[in-house]
UniProtKB/TrEMBL annotation:
Keyword field: Glycoprotein, Neurogenesis, Repeat, Secreted, Signal
GO cellular component, one term: extracellular region
Source species of the chain: Corythaeola cristata
Pfam families (UniProt xref): NDNF, NDNF_C, NDNF_N
Protein name: Protein NDNF
Function description: Secretory protein that plays a role in various cellular processes. Acts as a chemorepellent acting on gonadotropin-releasing hormone (GnRH) expressing neurons regulating their migration to the hypothalamus. Also promotes neuron migration, growth and survival as well as neurite outgrowth and is involved in the development of the olfactory system. May also act through the regulation of growth factors activity and downstream signaling. Also regulates extracellular matrix assembly and cell adhesiveness.
Chief location bin: secreted
Span of domain Fibronectin type-III: 179-316, 437-545
Length: 559
């Protein structure tokens, strides 16, 4: 059985069908027409479109083949093929078969006959590989095509399922689908700071010719460079995101995913993709070829890729990527602590950086006092370089330490919250009077549901064995204000920050027996079915207040 050369490249089920068709008797007129239709559809499903970018999906270890034939009547003409891997490295090659182009050209048009098929089988043929490549770079082949030659492109992925884009054109006179790169496509790093990197690159010839339709887009990430925009988008999607195609490269009103943040300022579009491996930042800056990337982390290596993009077609070309490491963050300024002096520090929750305080002991026994005013604070204390205490503090916390004269203590503070925290700090010799009053076992305020009425509530709180002053304040709030009031409460602020109308009463009490050191208070004159926020302030001998945890209570609607 003699078969055309290209049958050996067919998938198994099509090869079996072709062999069966070839071995039966000559078809009748009606069956000849059906055969022509099937052949027409078959070849057109494999023929690569001319002048159009084609997306091809590849299954692992399964080769995929496409063909193209030069139009009849053209002797020699240049053609280019550009293949862009969108993920893993692939293998691809171009094979040329001389002698079957006439047959396939007519078969594809559906105007062959059985005599021509017979002649093409008898005519000598030669198959040669004119190009092959393996890798994940964007590769372009330029050649001269002949009307007597059939070209086959074969693609194979050996790592995993993936997809690629292929662009074939035989028209070299009507411009390029892809923007052109300059002779030197490198990106130069011209400035590095603690949180910035400045880049520059040579202009694309396409920008100079079609400025209104071309723009530059920059991709910033901490993993590696990307050789194509297609590969970058695939990597972002595989990190668990849904990224609309070339989202960062057009100003189309796409809806962003929850993991994305869009920033549009000074004619620059920035999209920050929050992925598991860190930020992937896309910035489009028009036709500027110098850009300073802001808001980077100190002492971090970043990879930068620049793409020149055709806004009409979304086709892009990649400059040669580069990388740079930002400078280390300078050592934070160390604030000196003095005996007995109270300082209050606001801690940045976004930057999550440590604030440092230093103290040189003038006594063998000292006591550090920390009062967390808002949020939780991480406290780390070292003595002469060795850690002596480390824990998260919310509320009031004392650390009593022993050492030698002139020991050096370093206190480092950091917010554990995403929002800003604040903390009061004091250090003093152990035998001094404490800054803060003696505290009860719990700073919670309790309310009694059974004692609630339409115009009153009853609350209770613990006291101590020392006689102290307690002041009660109330504030009327709405349902949607509860969370904000509780989260934003400054536990370090005293009654001086409250409106005079919010004050309910002040009282003194104590009990030697801690089991009985509890007091109750019924607040009257309230409105029915209304939410109230209650606060209790404890004043010790030093006059510095300690605020109990706020309590929200709602009066009854009907009584």
């Amino acid at each position: 059985l003699k078969m055309p050369w290209f049958w050996f490249y067919l998938p198994l089920h099509l090869l079996m069908m072709a062999c069966l068709c070839h071995s039966i008797k000559a078809p009748t007129t009606s069956s000849q027409q059906s055969f022509k239709t099937d052949l027409f559809n078959f070849y057109h499903s494999l023929i690569l479109a001319d002048g159009k970018e084609t997306t091809i999906h590849l299954l692992k270890d399964i080769p995929k083949r496409y063909y193209f034939v030069l139009e009849e009547g053209r002797a020699l003409a240049p053609f280019t093929i550009t293949v862009t891997p969108c993920d893993v490295p692939i293998e691809w090659s171009i094979l040329m078969h001389k002698a079957s182009a006439g047959f396939l050209g007519k078969a594809a048009r559906g105007d062959h006959d059985t005599q021509q098929v017979s002649k093409s089988q008898k005519s000598p043929s030669m198959v040669s590989t004119i190009f092959n490549y393996k890798g994940n770079s964007v590769e372009t082949y330029m050649g001269m095509s002949s009307h007597s030659a059939l070209y086959m492109l074969e693609f194979l992925s050996t790592e995993r399922d993936t997809h690629i884009t292929v662009y074939l054109t035989t028209d070299t006179t009507s411009g390029h689908l892809y923007p052109e790169l300059p002779m030197d496509p490198r990106i130069d790093v011209i400035g590095i700071g603690h949180t910035t990197v400045t880049l520059t690159w040579k202009h694309s010839p396409s920008v100079l010719q079609h400025r209104e339709n071309i723009q530059y887009c920059l991709l910033v990430n901490e993993k590696h460079n990307y050789k194509s925009l297609c590969a970058a988008e695939t990597a972002i999607r595989s990190s668990g995101m849904k990224l609309p195609p070339t989202l960062a490269l057009s100003l189309s009103p796409y809806l962003l995913e929850p993991q994305q943040v869009m920033i549009l300022s000074n004619s620059e579009l920035s999209i920050i993709n929050k992925v598991t491996s860190g930020e992937v930042r896309q910035i489009c800056m028009g036709t500027k070829n110098t850009y300073t990337v802001p808001n980077l982390s100190p002492s971090t290596q970043y990879y930068f890729d620049v793409f020149v993009v055709n806004l009409l077609t979304n086709a892009s070309a990649a400059y040669t990527g580069t990388f740079a490491r930002t400078l280390e963050e300078p050592e934070p300024k160390v604030m000196e602590l003095k005996d007995g002096k109270v300082i209050q520090i606001v801690l940045d929750g976004k930057k999550q950086k440590f604030y440092s305080l230093q103290y040189q002991a003038r006594h063998r026994k000292i006591q550090f006092t920390f009062q967390s005013c808002r949020g939780q604070v991480q406290v780390h204390i070292t003595k002469n370089g060795k850690t002596v205490a480390s824990e998260n503090v919310s509320g009031l916390r004392y650390f009593s330490l022993k050492g030698k004269l002139l020991d050096t203590y370093l206190v480092q503070l950091r917010s554990t919250e995403e929002f800003n925290s604040s903390v009061k700090v004091q250090v003093s010799p152990h035998f001094h009077k404490p800054l803060f009053p003696l505290l009860p076992e719990s700073l919670k305020i309790k309310s009694f549901s059974k004692l609630r009425t339409c115009n009153s509530v009853t609350i209770a709180w613990l006291g101590t064995q020392e006689e102290n002053k307690y002041c009660v304040y109330k504030k009327r709030i709405e349902d949607d204000q509860v969370w904000m009031e509780l989260q934003s409460a400054d536990r370090c602020s005293g009654p001086e920050s409250r409106h005079k109308s919010e004050k309910v009463l002040c009282k003194y009490f104590y009990d030697i027996n801690l089991q009985r050191a509890v007091t109750t208070e019924t607040i009257k004159g309230l409105d029915a079915g209304t939410l109230y926020l209650f606060d209790v302030y404890l004043f010790g001998p030093s006059g510095i207040p300690v605020r109990y945890h706020s309590k929200v209570v709602k009066t009854r609607k009907k009584c």
